[in-house]
UniProtKB/TrEMBL annotation:
GO terms for cellular component: cytosol. It holds the Pfam family HTH_1. InterPro entries: HTH-type_LysR_regulators, LysR_HTH_N, LysR_subst-bd, WH-like_DNA-bd_sf, WH_DNA-bd_sf. Residues 1-58 form the HTH lysR-type domain. PROSITE patterns: HTH_LYSR. This is HTH lysR-type domain-containing protein. PANTHER family: HTH-TYPE TRANSCRIPTIONAL REGULATOR YBHD (PTHR30419), LYSR FAMILY TRANSCRIPTIONAL REGULATOR (PTHR30419:SF30). CDD domains: PBP2_LTTR_substrate (cd05466).
Length: 291
């Protein structure tokens, strides 16, 4: 039993004859007769009472027609949904973004993507790098913005942007006018840092270990506004990506010597085909990438 047979079954029922059904479907009348005869043979049931040129459903045919209507409706709904997905009129994207980038780099890009594909749902999750890696591997996210050098074998990625990490000080800090700062100078300060599990924190701790010093971390928080407030009040210094200092006149970013850059990529699971919606978001992000 196939969908074509069921289509012919309903057409004969509605038309009241094989000839009229064939004309309505623009097929040869013998094709419909053979399809119905084959269906009756397969089911070992008589579906129509044939009286001259008129036909009428048997009780068994009426039962099958009810099933046929539901099956054909589901088929048409499936075709419509696939067509909508093909045109990216429906679907969902799931992307994980580090806290700092979620606040400063991505909002206008995601709004532009939503404007282009208004029917898509966008689910954004902000977290630390380690948490994002875990959610990517376990499948709860489809895409994530991650440190390129940090990708495990289970993930692959495409370069998105390079961003500089700066020492951040308040207006009264004695290094505010410095053109650059060494890591030793930075680690001699009281620090306000992200909690462990964030790449910023782990990276700076690794640099401190390389220098043989212990960072003096006076404040820990995952809240960027709180870290900024601590620095503005002169209680500590911190590190941010350059993007986080836009429109912050009370804060000054000082480059490190040598400079510290982070290469960021958009990542997905290796060998796991992305949906059309997620491919569209990935390609859109890469099209916006810095040259």
């Amino acid at each position: 039993m196939d969908l074509k047979q069921l289509t012919y079954l309903l057409a004969v029922r509605d038309a009241g004859s094989f000839t009229k059904a064939a004309n309505g479907l623009h097929v040869a009348q013998p094709a419909i007769s053979m399809a119905i005869a084959k269906l009756e043979l397969q089911l070992e049931l008589r579906l129509f009472d044939r009286q001259d040129r008129n036909v009428r459903l048997t009780p068994e045919g009426e039962v099958l027609c009810r099933h046929a209507e539901r099956l054909l409706l589901q088929m048409h709904q499936a075709e419509a949904e696939m067509a909508e997905l093909k045109g990216l009129e429906r679907g969902e994207v799931r992307i994980g973004i580090p806290y700092m980038m979620g606040s400063y780099y991505f909002p206008p890009i995601l709004m532009a993507f939503k404007h282009r594909y208004p029917g898509l749902k966008i689910r954004v999750e902000e977290a630390g790098t380690r948490e994002l890696l875990s959610r990517m591997v376990d499948g709860s996210l489809d895409l994530a913005i991650l440190i390129t050098s940090d990708l495990p074998p289970a993930l692959e990625g495409a370069q998105l942007l390079r961003e500089e990490m700066l020492m951040v000080v308040g207006e009264e800090h004695p290094l505010r006018q410095a053109r650059s700062v060494s890591l030793s100078e930075f680690f001699s300060q009281e620090l306000a840092m992200f909690r462990r599990g964030f790449y910023h924190r782990e990276h700076m701790e690794a640099l401190a270990q390389g220098l043989g010093c212990e960072p003096d971390i006076a404040f820990e928080s995952n809240l960027i506004p709180l870290l900024k407030a601590v620095v503005k009040q002169g209680f500590a210094v911190t590190t941010f990506l350059r993007m986080a200092l836009e429109e912050e006149p009370a804060l000054t970013g000082i480059p490190f010597t040598p400079p510290i850059f982070l290469d960021l990529c958009v990542a997905w699971r290796r060998g796991d085909p992305l949906s059309m919606a997620n491919r569209a978001l990935r390609d859109f992000l890469l099209a916006q990438a810095q040259p």
